[in-house]
Amino acid sequence: MGMGKGANLEEMKLKEIKNGRLAMVAMVGFFAQHAATAKSPLEALGEHLGNPWGANFGTNGISIPF
Fold first, then answer.
1. Most exposed: 4, 12, 33, 66, by fewest CB within 10 Å?
2. Are 16 and 8 in contact (CB under 8 A)?
3. Ramachandran angles phi, psi of 55, nearest 5°
4. SS3 content of the chain, % helix, strand, coil (to 5)
């Protein structure tokens, strides 16, 4: 397919590293969510989809301290 040849190879390497870093930040968010709410990301999503105004970051009692 020719996607890994020449100068394009360095650009593709950089894009892959940035994508990996973004995935690591997303995992930190998943861990923080579980630590704060004791729910998995899918449980929290299901609860939010069922009641979007009642189950969000402002109503969980931990994200906003006041």
1. 66
2. no
3. -125, 90
4. 60, 0, 40
Q: Which of 66, 47, 63, 43 is nearest to 55 (CA)?
A: 47
Q: Which two tokens stand for residue 30?
A: 């998943």
Closest CA to 19 of 29, 11, 30, 7: 11
For residue 50, which amino acid is it?
G
With CA atoms as reference, report the closest residue to 62 among 43, 37, 28: 37
pTM above 0.70, yes or no: no
For residue 61, give the nearest of 29, 31, 43, 39 by alpha carbon.
39
Dist. CA 55–CA 19, nearest whole Å: 30
Yes or no: say if 3 and 11 are a contact pair by the CB < 8 Å rule.
no
